[in-house]
Amino acid sequence: MLPFKKFLYKFFRTGKDKNFLLVVEHIEILIAKFLSILMLLVTLFAIFELCVFLFKSLFFHSFITFFETPQSKLFEAFGLFLNVLIALEILENITVYLRDHDVPYELVLATSLIAVSRKIIIFDLEKKDAMDLIALGVAVLSLSVSYFILSIKNKHK
């Protein structure tokens, strides 16, 4: 029998779910490692983007206008900084998954809270209406309650 046919026979043989699950687990790990590498690249790009923005804003524009413009570049800098933090949190989620082979739900909720907080920090009241802000508030409240419930549940384990 050809090696590939032999592999397929062993892989799909009834009663041998252990082999199938082992292959699925290896593929999951490979995908998580690939995502980690991509997330590292995204994080490095976000850091580069933040550095370029700060360099241009501080050295090619007046230092005072950085803080006093109506659409302050300071909030844009906060948004870029939080992008880096969110990327690091996502990378941490993947790392914990690779290490423990478990989804870190508290960490996922914390990452989501950071992402929604970023939206609130860079929220432009002139371009958005009150319903958008209310929706973000509901999202923060829901994520916070979920995080609280999950942390209580994990304390009682």
From TrEMBL:
GO cellular component labels: plasma membrane
The keyword Transmembrane belongs to this UniProt entry's keyword annotation: yes
Main location per the UniProt record: membrane
Membrane topology, from the record: Multi-pass membrane protein
Origin superkingdom: Bacteria
InterPro entries membership: P_starv_induced_PsiE-like
Keyword Cell membrane appears in the UniProt entry: yes
Name recorded for this polypeptide: Phosphate-starvation-inducible PsiE family protein
Source organism of the structure: Lusitaniella coriacea LEGE 07157
